[in-house]
Write a structure and sequence with these properties.
alpha+beta; Serine Threonine Protein Phosphatase 5, Tetratricopeptide repeat; 4-stranded mixed sheet; two-stranded antiparallel sheet; globular
Length: 305
Amino acid sequence: MDHNMCPVCKGSKKCPNCNGKGYKMEKVSILATAPWKLKLTGRSYEIKRKTCYTCQGDGLCPECHGTGFIEDSKSEMMAHIHEKFEEYVDSEAYNKAKQLLDEAINQNGKHPSLLYDLGQLLSIKGNKSLLAGKKEEANKLWNQAIQVFEEILSIEPSYKEAYLNLCVIYHLFLQEYSKAIEVAEKCLKLFPNYYNLIGLYCMSLNKINEYDKVLNICEEKIKGIEVDNDPELECEVVNEDGEIIGTVREQEKGGYLVCMGDAFLGKGEFVKAKEFYERAKEIPSWSSGIVIDKLKQCGEKIINH
């Protein structure tokens, strides 16, 4: 990205604490969305504002937002297009969203950010078609999305969210687990601690009976997140009702525990599986829904055996 010296602060970066905006942005993870609005990047984020305690909302040098430079006009334009795209998708105006992206791509070429939004749109429309009972149409849309995300990676091989989107489509939508694993392993070579992808990777491995591999990976990752200082792991997780149900760190740990429970369930070790599901249940963000169903399944297996 090209940067130009800010003509207002001359690069002095006034009030870097709030980046000259007068407020700070706080990322808060959001769990559970309507299926047709699924954000394929894994965790989506709600952005909250907090008044800057340094400038008390004055926001010195708003032109450069306290960074000392201004972004090139193309970056600003891309951000505007994405914002408008999100508005269309949230209101389910998919034709307008597609028209917006088509025009932007014609004018600016196949920029990865534009292609990413296009892939998201195709995936969302696929989910919507599936809910309407149009499986063939859904598969067609998902495969089109795959082509878009693969094109992104041909332009920018380190675009990790594109890998994740591919894994989501292969695992959740098409049930092509071997392909999901192949994509995940390519990504994890570049980003070994990409938590969202690791969870999908383990889920796919369980589907092809690679249970011991899952147990080894999850055990290692649980130890890792317990000592990882990544601030994102401390973000609070809220549900759609706005209730705080824990942190990202707890959410990730719960996911690994569930994957380990699934592995033991697949191995026929039902008591052991129940133990890991119970551990996951103790984590607020995993205390209902899928874990409850898995515990019930384990109980039935134990009784029958």
